[in-house]
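Q: What residues go here?
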Protein backbone atom coordinates (compact mmCIF):
# COMPACT_ATOMS: atom_id res chain seq x y z
CA UNK A 1 0.00 0.00 0.00
CA UNK A 2 1.20 3.49 -0.86
CA UNK A 3 0.31 4.66 2.66
CA UNK A 4 2.74 2.12 4.11
CA UNK A 5 5.51 3.46 1.90
CA UNK A 6 4.75 7.05 2.98
CA UNK A 7 4.33 6.68 6.74
CA UNK A 8 3.24 9.41 9.08
CA UNK A 9 6.09 10.07 11.50
CA UNK A 10 5.27 11.04 15.08
CA UNK A 11 8.11 12.90 16.73
CA UNK A 12 8.61 12.84 20.47
CA UNK A 13 7.69 15.95 22.40
CA UNK A 14 10.59 16.87 24.64
CA UNK A 15 8.71 19.85 25.95
CA UNK A 16 8.12 20.80 29.53
CA UNK A 17 6.40 23.63 31.37
CA UNK A 18 8.51 26.07 29.34
CA UNK A 19 7.04 24.94 26.03
CA UNK A 20 7.42 22.32 23.33
CA UNK A 21 10.60 20.94 21.83
CA UNK A 22 10.78 18.59 18.86
CA UNK A 23 14.12 17.16 17.72
CA UNK A 24 14.77 15.59 14.34
CA UNK A 25 18.03 13.81 13.70
CA UNK A 26 19.07 12.34 10.36
CA UNK A 27 18.84 8.55 10.23
CA UNK A 28 17.50 8.53 13.79
CA UNK A 29 13.87 9.58 13.67
CA UNK A 30 13.78 10.29 9.94
CA UNK A 31 14.93 7.51 7.59
CA UNK A 32 17.80 9.36 5.87
CA UNK A 33 20.70 11.67 6.50
CA UNK A 34 19.46 15.25 6.08
CA UNK A 35 21.38 17.16 3.42
CA UNK A 36 18.97 20.04 2.84
CA UNK A 37 16.25 21.93 4.67
CA UNK A 38 13.82 24.36 3.11
CA UNK A 39 10.49 25.81 4.12
CA UNK A 40 7.51 27.16 2.28
CA UNK A 41 5.35 29.94 3.64
CA UNK A 42 3.27 32.79 2.26
CA UNK A 43 1.31 30.41 0.02
CA UNK A 44 -2.48 30.47 0.33
CA UNK A 45 -5.42 28.23 -0.45
CA UNK A 46 -5.38 29.16 -4.16
CA UNK A 47 -1.88 27.79 -4.68
CA UNK A 48 -0.77 24.29 -5.65
CA UNK A 49 2.93 23.62 -5.12
CA UNK A 50 5.05 20.59 -5.72
CA UNK A 51 3.54 18.93 -8.78
CA UNK A 52 6.65 16.88 -9.24
CA UNK A 53 8.39 13.64 -8.38
CA UNK A 54 12.06 13.20 -7.61
CA UNK A 55 14.23 10.51 -9.11
CA UNK A 56 16.56 10.49 -6.11
CA UNK A 57 15.36 12.67 -3.23
CA UNK A 58 13.50 11.49 -0.19
CA UNK A 59 11.63 14.04 1.90
CA UNK A 60 9.94 14.56 5.23
CA UNK A 61 7.24 17.28 5.30
CA UNK A 62 6.19 18.93 8.55
CA UNK A 63 3.82 21.85 9.01
CA UNK A 64 5.67 23.49 11.90
CA UNK A 65 2.95 26.17 11.92
CA UNK A 66 -0.49 26.31 10.37
CA UNK A 67 -1.70 23.63 8.02
CA UNK A 68 -1.64 22.32 4.49
CA UNK A 69 -2.45 19.16 2.60
CA UNK A 70 -0.28 16.95 0.46
CA UNK A 71 -1.74 14.69 -2.23
CA UNK A 72 0.50 11.74 -2.88
CA UNK A 73 0.37 9.28 -5.74
CA UNK A 74 2.51 6.62 -7.35
CA UNK A 75 0.38 6.71 -10.49
CA UNK A 76 -1.82 3.87 -9.22
CA UNK A 77 -2.80 4.65 -5.64
CA UNK A 78 -3.45 8.10 -4.19
CA UNK A 79 -4.08 9.56 -0.77
CA UNK A 80 -4.18 12.94 0.94
CA UNK A 81 -2.33 13.66 4.18
CA UNK A 82 -3.33 16.63 6.32
CA UNK A 83 -0.30 18.31 7.83
CA UNK A 84 -1.34 20.32 10.85
CA UNK A 85 0.86 19.37 13.79
CA UNK A 86 4.48 20.40 14.44
CA UNK A 87 5.09 16.97 15.96
CA UNK A 88 3.91 15.06 12.91
CA UNK A 89 5.57 14.62 9.54
CA UNK A 90 5.14 12.50 6.47
CA UNK A 91 7.93 10.57 4.79
CA UNK A 92 7.95 10.65 0.99
CA UNK A 93 10.32 8.25 -0.76
CA UNK A 94 11.86 8.78 -4.20
CA UNK A 95 9.63 8.53 -7.29
CA UNK A 96 6.42 9.64 -5.61
CA UNK A 97 4.32 12.40 -7.17
CA UNK A 98 3.20 15.10 -4.73
CA UNK A 99 1.04 18.21 -4.72
CA UNK A 100 0.89 20.55 -1.74
CA UNK A 101 -2.18 22.79 -1.41
CA UNK A 102 -4.79 24.32 0.92
CA UNK A 103 -2.17 26.33 2.77
CA UNK A 104 -3.51 28.25 5.76
CA UNK A 105 -2.33 31.89 5.96
CA UNK A 106 0.01 30.95 8.84
CA UNK A 107 1.34 27.79 7.17
CA UNK A 108 5.06 27.15 7.44
CA UNK A 109 5.81 23.87 5.70
CA UNK A 110 9.23 22.56 6.66
CA UNK A 111 10.85 20.10 4.25
CA UNK A 112 13.82 17.89 5.07
CA UNK A 113 15.56 16.35 2.07
CA UNK A 114 18.06 13.54 1.60
CA UNK A 115 19.90 15.31 -1.23
CA UNK A 116 21.41 18.61 -2.20
CA UNK A 117 19.31 20.44 -4.78
CA UNK A 118 19.61 19.20 -8.34
CA UNK A 119 16.91 20.46 -10.69
CA UNK A 120 17.71 17.61 -13.11
CA UNK A 121 16.36 14.95 -10.73
CA UNK A 122 12.90 16.55 -10.70
CA UNK A 123 10.19 15.14 -12.96
CA UNK A 124 7.69 17.94 -13.54
CA UNK A 125 5.59 16.28 -16.25
CA UNK A 126 3.08 13.74 -14.96
CA UNK A 127 3.04 11.72 -18.20
CA UNK A 128 6.83 11.49 -18.07
CA UNK A 129 6.55 10.38 -14.43
CA UNK A 130 4.13 7.60 -15.41
CA UNK A 131 6.50 6.51 -18.21
CA UNK A 132 9.45 6.33 -15.82
CA UNK A 133 7.40 4.45 -13.22
CA UNK A 134 6.42 1.88 -15.87
CA UNK A 135 10.05 1.54 -16.91
CA UNK A 136 11.06 0.94 -13.28
CA UNK A 137 8.37 -1.73 -12.88
CA UNK A 138 9.66 -3.49 -15.99
CA UNK A 139 13.12 -3.21 -14.55
CA UNK A 140 11.82 -5.32 -11.66
CA UNK A 141 12.50 -2.75 -8.96
CA UNK A 142 16.13 -3.86 -8.82
CA UNK A 143 17.34 -0.48 -7.72
CA UNK A 144 18.15 0.91 -11.14
CA UNK A 145 17.51 4.63 -10.87
CA UNK A 146 17.98 5.52 -14.54
P1 LIG B 1 9.89 24.33 -6.67
O1 LIG B 1 10.53 22.98 -6.72
O2 LIG B 1 9.03 24.71 -7.82
O3 LIG B 1 9.09 24.50 -5.32
P2 LIG B 1 7.87 23.61 -4.77
O4 LIG B 1 8.31 22.19 -4.80
O5 LIG B 1 7.66 24.08 -3.39
O6 LIG B 1 6.67 23.87 -5.60
O7 LIG B 1 11.07 25.38 -6.49
C1 LIG B 1 10.90 26.76 -6.73
C2 LIG B 1 12.24 27.35 -7.17
O8 LIG B 1 13.22 27.24 -6.15
C3 LIG B 1 12.80 26.67 -8.40
O9 LIG B 1 13.36 27.67 -9.25
C4 LIG B 1 13.92 25.81 -7.88
C5 LIG B 1 14.36 26.53 -6.63
N1 LIG B 1 14.83 25.62 -5.58
C6 LIG B 1 16.19 25.58 -5.24
O10 LIG B 1 17.02 26.28 -5.83
N2 LIG B 1 16.60 24.74 -4.25
C7 LIG B 1 15.73 23.94 -3.59
O11 LIG B 1 16.15 23.18 -2.68
C8 LIG B 1 14.34 23.98 -3.93
C9 LIG B 1 13.33 23.11 -3.23
C10 LIG B 1 13.94 24.84 -4.92
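A:
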Amino acid sequence: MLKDRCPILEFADLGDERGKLVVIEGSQNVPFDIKRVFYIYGSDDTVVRGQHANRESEFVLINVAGESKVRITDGTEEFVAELNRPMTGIYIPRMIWKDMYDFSPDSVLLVLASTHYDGAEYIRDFQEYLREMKAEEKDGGNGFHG
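A: Context that may help when evaluating the design: The CA atoms of residues 60 and 113 lie 7 Å apart. The beta strands are 8-10, 36-41, 48-54, 59-65, 68-73, 78-83, 88-92, 97-101, 108-113, 122-123.
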